[in-house]
Design goal:
Length: 209
């Protein structure tokens, strides 16, 4: 009885092995992509600037002018003329393209350090919906026309100063990082690279490559 059972088990094992051999025929071999820790990829760029982000925002500025007196403190007595200007500005930020960028390997990704985005000046703004309002408070206030001209003349520097504010740079940072990532990834594909490793973008003031 035991002999029959053993023969039955052996037969089952032989049949199972034969079935497995029929189903699992052949092998598939391929290389496992491992990042070489000593390999640094160089992204050769043509120079110039890469536009990385843009921010459109309504901005408002004011300009005040009043008469002065040589001997007494008349500005505190005389009322000013004030003009306010309201424009829809478009702040565009760019990253300078050096001769080459370095993709430095880490454990499971690359690190690409590039200079901080720079504001493109002069800042563009829409003129079709620009609004200017001027207030004259008295007959001893300066005339409105020169004051209105002054607020328009100082609009460019005021927009440049506003666009360089750290809060604006923090707001656009994620979009700028994504643009640089896409640029680097596209370059790698054009050069025949097929790595799927992510690219971490770091901005560094005054970074040189």
């Amino acid at each position: 009885m035991k002999t029959a059972a053993i023969r039955l088990l052996l037969a089952a094992a032989v049949l199972g092995a034969a079935a497995a051999a029929w189903f699992l025929h052949g092998t598939r071999e391929e290389a496992v992509a491992i990042l070489d820790p000593a390999r640094i990829l160089l992204l050769r760029t043509p120079g110039g600037f890469l536009e990385v982000a843009a921010l459109e925002k309504v901005e408002e500025f004011g300009w005040s002018s009043r008469y002065t007196c040589p001997l007494v403190d008349c500005p505190s007595l005389l009322t000013p003329t004030i003009s306010r200007i309201r424009v829809r500005a478009r702040f565009t930020y760019r990253v300078p393209l050096a001769a080459e960028w370095k993709l430095v390997p880490r454990a499971d990704h690359y690190v690409l350090t590039v200079p901080e985005p720079q504001l493109q000046v002069p800042v563009a703004f829409h003129t079709e919906d620009m609004q200017i309002q001027t207030t004259e408070s008295g007959w001893l206030s300066p005339p409105a026309a020169p004051n209105r001209e002054a607020v328009v003349r100082h609009l460019g520097p005021q927009l440049a100063s506003r666009g360089s504010d750290p809060a604006y740079l923090r707001a656009l940072r994620p979009a700028a990082q994504q643009t640089v990532q896409e640029f680097a990834r596209k370059w790698m594909l054009e050069q025949g690279g097929k790595t799927s490793l992510p690219i971490e973008v770091s901005f560094e003031p005054g970074a040189a490559h």
